[in-house]
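In these records, each integer encodes one residue's backbone shape. Here is one protein:

___
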Amino acid sequence: LDGEWIERSGRIWRATQFGNTFQWVQDGTNRNATGIAVPLNGGLQWVLFATFDGHANMKFVPSVDGSQLVATNETFTRIHSMNYSTGLSQPASTVWKCTMHEGGHFVLKNQTDGRICDTYTVRDNNRNVFVLYLVFQNQGSEQILKVETMDINTWQLPNGDCFRRT
């Protein structure tokens, strides 16, 4: 459930999950909802119950692919805000292209020398930052760098490099 969800009206909710409980906070209004996720059929299916503003209760059923939460009068759709289909660049105009993206994990490939960078990211809503771990693969060795940024489009790496979305 962690991440961003958009309701039919276009308002965005940020979700934080704590085991089988969760909290949603609506951008701009700070409205909140709390709820539980209940596993069914040995965890193969789920049902969610949320209480909005302390009184309005709703039941949600996830879509088969997990991209939507469907209730009787509302649908929330997961926002995949970290889609880097256009690539990233670092100093000297080196381009890294996204070759795979799934949730908070994506793979970047250096278009000059073929190096690979596995990137894992989550949003820390308490601090309003994105936390990224970049695992660079180079001739059998790994270099792991951690980045914290408020702007997902710009990553200031601790080694001095700066990645920018292109």
In short: Residues 127 and 150 are 9 Å apart (CA to CA). The chain has no helices and 16 strands. Confidence is low (pLDDT under 50) at residues 81-86. Residues 88-165 form one domain.
